[in-house]
Amino acid sequence: MSQGVQFNRLMLEMRAMQTDAMARVKPEVKTQEVGAPSFSDMLGQAVNKVHETQQVSNQLSSAFEMGQGGIDLTEVMIASQKASVSFQAMTQVRNKLVQAYQDIMQMPV
């Protein structure tokens, strides 16, 4: 009979510890600093800059192909390379973000 009493007492203590532990856990809510850009805003701005770089490259290429004056082949090639490098960098950032997301999703809870 004493083992049954000890078991019940032990279970009551464990439940009390569980409720204490659950009461102590409070989700931390971090507020964003006023004026600080969010990650999604920064990523959106970077994508927009890559898009603008590609548009400038396309406009210079079209103008050069149509024979408009004042546009050198070197200027067109530099703009094209800038667009290419910026797009490749954006693609690598996307790949890293996807990989990080997949790693987080595969973590055991």
Automatic annotation (TrEMBL):
GO molecular function: cytoskeletal motor activity; structural molecule activity
Superkingdom classification of source: Bacteria
GO biological process, one term: bacterial-type flagellum-dependent cell motility
Keywords annotated in UniProt: Bacterial flagellum, Cell projection, Cilium, Flagellum
Cell compartments where the protein resides: Bacterial flagellum basal body
UniProt-listed InterPro entries: FliE (IPR001624)
Any one cellular-component term (Gene Ontology): bacterial-type flagellum basal body
Main location: other
Source species: Stutzerimonas stutzeri
Name listed for the protein in its UniProt record: Flagellar hook-basal body complex protein FliE
Record family assignment: Belongs to the FliE family.
UniProt entry tagged with the keyword Protein biosynthesis: no
Classification via Pfam families: FliE
Lineage: Bacteria, Pseudomonadati, Pseudomonadota, Gammaproteobacteria, Pseudomonadales
